[in-house]
Amino acid sequence: MPPATQDQPQRVPEAGAAFDAIIVGAGFAGMYMLHRLRGLGFAARAYEAGGGVGGTWYWNRYPGARCDVESMQYSFSFSEELDQQWDWSEKYAPQSEILSYANHVADRFDLRRHILFDTRVTAATFDETAKCWRIETDRGDKVSAKFCIMAVGCLSAANHVPFEGREDFQGPIYHTGEWPHEGVDFTGLRVGVIGTGSSAIQSIPIIAEQASALTVFQRTATYTVPAWNEKLTPEYRNAIKADYPALRAKARARPTGFYFPFNMKPALEATPEQRTRQYEEAWQRGGLPFLGAYGDLLFEKAANDTIAEFARDKIRSIVRDPATAELLCPHNVFGCKRLCVDTGYFDTYNLPHVKLVDVSKTPIERFTSGGIEVNGTEYPLDAIVCATGFAAMTGSFDRIAITGRDGRTLAEKWRGGPRAYLGVATAGFPNLFTITGPGSPSVLASMIQAIEQHVDWMADCMAHMRDIGAATIEPVEAYEDDWVEHVNEVSKVSLRSTCSSWYVGANIPGRPRVFMPYIGGFPVYVQKCNEVMTNGFEGFVMEGGDIGNEMPRVRLTERWRVPLDIEVISPAAVAARRVPVV
Ligand code: N01
């Protein structure tokens, strides 16, 4: 019998129940999928490992966690009423508010009764005879469904680095992505933070306010832009709400799936003085839109050098100790690793009790009973925070034994890197859908928009299959191969493919180096998905039923038909001149 937890009492394992669809995960992706499928009259069930909805925002409760896409855009767009009803309090919402929003959505759309919490899906096996998925959970459930939808998140499998001596350390060790729900009080403690990615950059200034001493172990210096976060006034919110659909439409036409002012002019055509002025203005606006200061920053190394030098000068002007400032200066391509957005990050290093330790050339040797040892020096610590990130894009799939046709596992198929057609499905695994899967814009677009577009497309696909009585759908391998190659080719156009980031799996030793998200731009991708559907699911094979030439009925996908904003450079448009257009 599965153990009782705080949120979910002991329950008898479920055996034999059959559903139209099983959804794995109840973050924003799983919730919206559930809502759509129920609306279409499908019997759907979601399993969620956590004790509540929210996914990323359920687990990542570290101090300072907040979104770095503006709140008014980081939300569902499918319900105008929801948009009108919800009030975001800050420009960048904190984790607690985003989690409240997720809970509000779950209540408003009555989702909880079809979600089983505290239940992790452990195995999904395709039964070729019955043409259904057999699903098993860690609570002993054994159920089946025609469709299995992976809503497992792109950044959900925490990267627990196997540091030597980990078990010797006498104090607590935390991972930012699995933060204790009751919070952590660091008051008066000597704290070590490993890592300087987004999670570290958000948490370090807050931990420094509490800790008696803070030591940051940095392997790679990171570019970060000030958030200039602020309270939202009713006037500001109302101005957006007066025509929310217009903002949503503008957002969908952008390569990132969210809207911000973008200057298309090339940096290299401006004078140094003009560039400095432009960068300064963009810095004062802050956040991820800083990268929109010029159109060629992620395509031309010489252009990128100019913004990188501007950012380094900012660091030198903020951090008073020149040696620390130099250590904090990144020397890789600006925006190559995911750009960070901070509040007071560099200022934190001016505090007398904050120390930066460079572990780029001499890595962390071991944890000891009382701290961390680097290059023969022991740094005494009472608590350690691992802000070491995630096994991105595919890590959550690795945690489930997924078996397709002929007993082939997904782990085997993806050993050399993930392969999926449009990032939504993978050959050999019929009726398995992957929301924001590898090969789709996913993490390079505003996640909730990327999720909604995938869910609408998948829901339309499943409804079409029901319309024609089709039993299975899966990609044709040749189309999948072409798509994977296109994803790879387009990535080479962008400077983003050049550094060792989690985008290419390089943060975890032994992972194949593959640029996993689709960098061709959200609208270009959406157009491709729409074409595939209206061409009768081109590149997919459907079996069973009346699979004649009936045009699919486009129910939900229609709202993603937006004109391409040709004023904004899309890597796919750039790539189109160099590689075959897909
Ligand atoms: O993880 P990361 P994250 N020894 O992988 C270091 C999203 N997010 O959790 O760069 C020493 O970026 C590693 O060093 P290096 C966002 O998309 C969004 O911060 O590999 N150091 C790096 O500094 C983000 O990009 C928000 O050399 C080690 C750090 O750990 C993504 O999640 C907030 C090490 C990991 O940084 C991941 O961010 C937070 C080792 N052995 C996150 N191993 C928003 O604001 C790893 N590191 C929306």
Task: Summarize the entry for a quick read.
The chain is an alpha/beta fold and 582 residues long. Helices cover 30% and strands 16% of the residues. The chain has helices at residues 28-39, 56-59, 80-85, 95-108, 198-210, 234-241, 244-252, 272-285, 301-318, 322-328, 345-348, 395-398, 410-413, 447-468, 477-493, 522-534, 571-576; strands spanning 15-24, 44-47, 115-116, 121-127, 132-137, 142-150, 173-175, 190-194, 213-218, 224-226, 340-342, 354-358, 364-368, 371-374, 377-380, 383-386, 401-403, 432-434, 472-475, 540-543.
Q: Any key phrases for this structure?
A:
single chain, 582 residues, alpha/beta, eight-stranded mixed sheet, five-stranded parallel sheet, 17 helices, 20 strands, 16% strand, binds 3-acetylpyridine adenine dinucleotide
Provide structural commentary.
- This protein has 582 residues and is an alpha/beta fold.
- The chain has 17 helices and 20 strands.
- It has helices at residues 28-39, 56-59, 80-85, 95-108, 198-210, 234-241, 244-252, 272-285, 301-318, 322-328, 345-348, 395-398, 410-413, 447-468, 477-493, 522-534, 571-576; strands at residues 15-24, 44-47, 115-116, 121-127, 132-137, 142-150, 173-175, 190-194, 213-218, 224-226, 340-342, 354-358, 364-368, 371-374, 377-380, 383-386, 401-403, 432-434, 472-475, 540-543.
- Strands 1, 2, 3, 4, 5, 6, 17 and 18 form an 8-stranded mixed beta sheet that branches. A 5-stranded parallel beta sheet has the order 7-16-8-9-12, with helices on one face.
- The model is unreliable at 1-6 and 577-582 (pLDDT under 50).
- The structure holds 3-acetylpyridine adenine dinucleotide.
- 3-acetylpyridine adenine dinucleotide binds at residues 67-68, 155, 161, 176, 194-200, 202, 217, 219-220, 338, 359, 363-364, 387-390, 443, 502, 507.
- The site of 3-acetylpyridine adenine dinucleotide has 27 residues, from helix 5.
